[in-house]
Each structure stands twice: as C-alpha cells, then as structure tokens.
C-alpha cells in the first residue's frame, strides 16, 4: 500500500454534520453487513432479537423450517413497530396496535375485521425482508436484500480463520456502553495504539505498542472492507487479563505463533474483532446519531472450557472493561474537541497509518 508522506485526519464536519451522517447511513449502515447476533441466541422457533441502528429498526427471527430471517420492524398497516428487545413470539408475530399478524416468514396471515376493507391484498402486504448470512456461528444482516453474501464480501478475512472453530464458542458476558461520540471517532481509536502508553498503561505493559504489526488496509475503490493486524505479548505474558496470564487452554486450532499475539480487526461498518489465544472479544457499534454510539462488548470462550467447575471469565472482563472505559473517555473528549471552531486536523505519525487509511476510506466513500 502506498502511504502519503503527510497524513491529515478528517475535518470537523465529518463528525458533526447531519448531512454527512445521513450519507453514511445510506452508504454504510443500509448497504453493508452488520453483525447482529449469534445463532444460539435464536435457538428455537419464534426466538427473535430486535436491532436498532442509525434511526432504523429491524428484527431477526428463527422460522419454522430452522432458518434465520430478518425483517424491518414496521407493521404494513400504519407503521407501528412490531417487537422490542428480544424473546419469543411463539408461532406468529402480532402487531401490538391493531393485531395484524404475520407468519414467521413475514407473510401477512391475519387482519381483524378484514371484511370491512375495500381492498385487502394480503399477499402484497408481507413484512419487508432483509438479507441474512451466517459465518462461524455469527449472524449478519444487510438492509440491501440483493447484496453479495457476507462470506463473499469478506472472503479474504473469512479464509484467515479456517483453522479455528468459532461455532464452539459461547458468550460469557456482554457489557453495553453508551458513548457520547461519533462512530468514526470510536473506529479511529480502535485503529491505533499510539495512545496506549498514556491511556492504557496496563495494556501497554502486556502488549507494548512498539510490538504491533499492521497488515491489512481498507480500500473503497477495491471494496476492501476490513483492516487490522496484531500485537505481540511482552515476555512472560500469555493473554490480556488482569495478571497478563491465563490458566485457560488456547482455543482449539490455535497455531504456535498465535500464542504470542492478539489480533485486532475492523470490519466496516460495525465490528471490532479481537482474537486472544484463549478467547474472542467482539465489539459491535450501533450509532444512534452523529453524536452518540452504543457499543456492545461480548466475550466468547470455548464451551468446553466454560463447562469446567473452576471456569471464570472475570480476569479478562475486568481488564477490558477498564480499557474500554478509558477509550470511551478519550473518544468523548475528542468528539467535544473536534466540535470547536478552532479545531484543525493535525498530522499523524506512521503508527497511526490505519487511522489515516480509515479516514481516506471515508473520504473516498463520501466523495
């Protein structure tokens, strides 16, 4: 990849302009793959999960034939949202307003007082469907029904992990954060560790920022939608935990070189994929507006390891909750600072090249 000598970040309006956020909604959140769930969260017929992002709401549901489908969370009568949160609808999805009901495959099957309608074509009034794809137990949704599959769009990334079986992982903990910052500031923060010595002294002791390797870069022209690399453990450390060590076995299939690394990958637009030798941490981003981003942080461990009587994930969760909160603080400071009339983006050093790469990706996408 050719890197320009002078790397300058995004100007103020990219973080604080409503029109730019509207463009981002159309380009990224409505036309790209969003990580929404795990297959085991939708284990039984009728199980559902609602997702809200950038002013849109949709839900995933397990159908009678075992598939997972996704629909916009909008009744075809007068627009009421159909579902909230997560749970089970049983065998039918019923609108809470006028009790229009839909089969789990989205077909309109019931309308009270249907004889009083001048014209009612049930076949044309099914729920609006979204595209769904799965990979290694993770469920992705795309609002563009005709999008290429996730496994096609991210084939290079997918092929990097064929030696590991993420389907065997189970979530031990989810922490939800409400970050008062533009989603791109959160992404930029994940894309560099130049800030690690002053902001994350514990992390930097376990994986010094000087030991990072940045190997993958974004490209809007090539539709290359992931970037990342890895950081190397300092001597004596084996995982990102409170002690920097772990008694847990490495994930099945972990290679020798992986025992000394934590892999960090951004999947545009809403996934941070952080693979440790003994667990996988996933952040998903759910922008509410240009000024606020909900971030979910999930911790996944091998289900056999979790079945052991002495299993505990607390050593990993505790340190990452501390690191996360440190990150959100500087993200919020940056969001407020970039809103100043005196903010002018400054130069970036070489070890912020993936921040610059992301910013160039955004510029190219919005051009």
Automatic annotation (TrEMBL):
Keywords: 2Fe-2S, Iron, Iron-sulfur, Metal-binding, Oxidoreductase. Transmembrane segments: none annotated. The keyword Metal-binding applies. Its cofactor is Fe cation. One of its GO terms (molecular function) is oxidoreductase activity. It comes from the Archaea. Residues 33-141 form the Rieske domain. The keyword Protein biosynthesis does not apply. InterPro entries: Rieske_2Fe-2S (IPR017941), Rieske_2Fe-2S_sf (IPR036922), Ring_hydroxy_dOase_asu_C_dom (IPR015879), Rng_hydr_dOase-A (IPR001663). Pfam families: Rieske, Ring_hydroxyl_A. This is Rieske domain-containing protein. It comes from Candidatus Marsarchaeota G1 archaeon BE_D. The lineage of its organism: Archaea, Candidatus Marsarchaeota, Candidatus Marsarchaeota group 1.
